[in-house]
Amino acid sequence: QVQLVESGGGFVQPGGSLRLSCTASGFTFSRYRMNWYRQAPGKERELVATISSTGGSTNYADSVKGRFTISRDNARNTVSMQMNDLKPEDTAVYYCNVQNSWNEYWGQGTQVTVSS
Question: What integer pLDDT is reported at residue 66 of this predicted model?
Answer without folding.
Answer: 98
